[in-house]
Amino acid sequence: MKLAWLTDIHLNFPKLKARKKFYQDIIDSDCDGVLITGDIAESLNVEALLQEMADFIERPIYFVLGNHDYYDGQVADVRNNMQVLTDEHAYLVWLPAAGVLSLSDKTLLVGQDGWADGRLGNYAESPVELNDSYHIADLAQKRILGKKPLLTKMQQLAGQDANALKENLLQAADEQPKKIIVLTHIPPFKEVCMHEGEVQGDEFLPYFSSKATGDVLLDVSKQNPGIEFLVLCGHTHSAAQYSPLDNLTVAVGKAEYNKPEIQKILSIT
Question: Which pLDDT band, with edges at 50, 70 and 90, does 195 fall under?
């Protein structure tokens, strides 16, 4: 089996002709399915664009959402819509709703959207404000109240997804596969939060990393040294790779608006 990894494709930017060319590129890659690590579109059009892609390529699409996929929406509403989409469309699989999936006798797949949690870098003194806190209703409501309530909400969302990921990883590890592939959007370690070839500074790291996710990955990987963990992420738009443990590798894909591309073809054995 071959799977095409995509990330931060932002399909709401390219025109239909460009999107169809991208879909054809996926077909021409001779992949059997697609993995997407978030930022597919925005809440008002992500369902329609996912269906458009699935109907065109006629292959399974396993995906998690990124921060942009929640823009102009409420977190709960977007997630309810994804649950319905997964139930109704045979090719579309939102991993937080799917749990642990078997890709082969040796390889399992899990995924959670993930959120930046402000724990790396220097949130308290950072002057940075991302559009997330204006365009995602749950965060916007807290931003109005101040920086501390916003951080509390960020950490609540990140913690919920990290806990759900841990449950899925432990369940997957119990099956003793050779490999577990993990999809998430926010990078879990600062070493893969890159910008122009360097690790993000302390002012940006709070918004581009999830320490909660990183802690879960380290914990479960250490408990299961015989299993290879491959974590695929997006968000920073800069390619990076880091292996904090012999059996844990994290890769972040590069991206550019209006130029969706295939990051890599993974061979599943």
Answer: confident
